[in-house]
Amino acid sequence: MSCSSVLYKNLWLADGTGTPLRKCAVLTKGAEVRAIEPAITASAADRTLDLGGRILAPGFIDVHGHSDLSILARPEGFGKISQGVVSEIAGNCGLSAFPVTRFNRAHLNELYRQYGVEIDWDDYSGWRAALARRGVKLKMHALCGHNTLRAAIAGYEQAGLSGPELDEMARLLDRMLEQGAPGLSTGLLYVPGKFADSDEIVFLMKRLAARGALYATHLRSEGSELLESLSETVECARRAGLNRLQISHFKTAGRANWSKLDAALALLEAARQDGIELSVDRYPYTESMTQLSVILPGEWGDLDDETIERRLADPAEQQALETALDESRSSEYWRTVRLVGTAAPGFSGCEGKTLDRLAAQFRVTAPALAVKLLSADAAGTTAGFRGMSEENLRRILALPWCMAGSDENARPLDYSIGRSHPRAFGSLPRFLKLRFEDGASIESAVRQVTGLPADTFRLAGQGYIAAGRPADFAVFDPEELDGTDDFANPHTPASGLLLTVIDGEAVYRP
Ligand SMILES: [Zn+2]
Ligand SMILES: [Zn+2]
Predict the structure, then answer these.
(1) CA 334 to CA 365: how far, in whole Å?
(2) Where is coiled-coil annotated (predicted)?
């Protein structure tokens, strides 16, 4: 990084506050913004950059990421910086790369095996030190994931926790918060978070309240029990006296639940009116993605991925699961599930296709195909699930308290550390594009991905452009801005994004 001065000129500034665009020049020195000046009187600098009338915005903040390990495997974070992202909140959906103990280390190493990074740290500080050693420039933060935290105390199979175990968990959470983790995330759809009852959540929320930390949640249900899950979250927060809530990837999943949006928003608005600082994040797509193993019915759904693979080594168990899947899922269902990535042998070139199509191609039933994938790679097989409403998506993005969250890893252009949903490369530009299409001003849409998330997650020094702040910028052309939605070629850089700057250094230029 040089200490020279740079003058960015011929630009429209969206400074993150939401105030109207203004034509000006921005002077930086080294890693810092020095001055914002009228274009005509702008001072001389070592270098001048003419932005050709484009928008200069604060570097974008991805508030819902999962780059905990991928950023260590490929520290340049290409998929993120090519979207204008300079900062990510990782550790979401209950899954973080800390705290690590003898109870969860092997499991985490197995879960993250595709990244080829050995987890040799124990806590938030240790993870941060690993990032620093790898020279990561993206400004990474991570919530403490409840699933990881719970497993650090009691492993992945235990349902109820004893009093001493709860206390131990709280002490560990306190330590992660002291080390700088901005809050706790839950993933109540997943093992072992799904075993936690409301009392356990309230117990942990009280620790967050005591430290002014934030609670982010992947709800127990985003579809059939959406309203109940939202109520549970808000009710727990009230009981705990916690007033900072983030609803992760907020959606109404499944056509039968699309009509619940009004009731859901009424519930959230009521909580906001009660003084709870509540906000949501969302990726701008109508197809979700997670591990294929979430489709498992009945008792199979309570198993962690390692146990699933182990049990499926037995042909009798394979047959049992195939039958259970066949009985619990309609043939229509398999048309809405798409293979995104897998390390199971024999499936290269199959990514992006629905399980229905792949089953026909392999001349097996869809349940048999799913079993084949899961027995070879339960931890790494990911799938896309159709079932969200475009209209609801746009209504959610239009909430002034909605931010962009990709729900993805930072990935390179190649597929060497796995394949993503297109949201890994397109979320932030696409979020802005959809907002512009729906009539939002550039400055207010930019605020949703900069100042608002910086305030919500208390990211000091981020989200705004002003003298004395870090020179973190995203430069874009609002007419051209777009992010890929191509599942066959998901690792495609966004269009219209012209420059990303972190601490005064140009880290991306297409
Ligand atoms: Zn999630
Ligand atoms: Zn997530």
Answers:
(1) 10
(2) none
